[in-house]
Structures are given as C-alpha cells and as structure tokens.
Write the structure tokens for this entry.
Amino acid sequence: MAGWTGCRARMKIRQFELWKARPLGFNTDHWFVVIGGQERCDEERYGFVNGLACFSLRGPISRRDIQLDTADGLASPTACQCDYLHPVPKSALHSSLGVVSWERQQQIKAKIKELLRL
C-alpha cells in the first residue's frame, strides 16, 4: 500500500479519536477508534495505526463491544468492537469526528484487557 505522504503527513492523528476509513476487507467506510500509541500516530514512517471497528448498533450489544453514542460524537448508538485490532492505513483515514469521551476510553481499555487477557 502507498505510504503516508503529501498533505496526509500534516494530518494530526490522536489516540482515541474516531476516524472514517475503509481498510482491506471492508466494503464500505466505517468509523474506527484509533488505538495506536501516540508515537506511532505521530511517526510518518509508520503507515498504519491500530483501530477498533465501529458498526451501527442493531439489537443488544455484544459482550465484546462497548457502546458509543452522542457523547462520543456519533449520531446514533454504535458498537465499538474491542476484540480485534485492525491495521488501518493512515492514508485511508478521513473525516475525523473527534475524541471518544473519557468515560468510554476507560471502558474500551478495560474491555481490551479483559478480552485479550492482558
């Protein structure tokens, strides 16, 4: 895949921000919570960050998900899947929505530790 160059190099990406992207394996754009450490987000030579995929919530929330909502900038209830870190190309990120609320950040951290048994 193409590296992180051009105007994208000036884009600031922060941990726990919501960004839209369509990484490999996705047919449409989805929201992703950036989980990569700030050093990886800042370093131009790293073309990817870790992200948690988010999907519109339909029905009850799964035990592997954390629910995001308007407090996190989303228009409707959304499931943030915490059991798999997707490699998301920085060059694919667009349409930042802002930072996930502090409370939800704590829930996401706890859920990742639980599910990945860290």
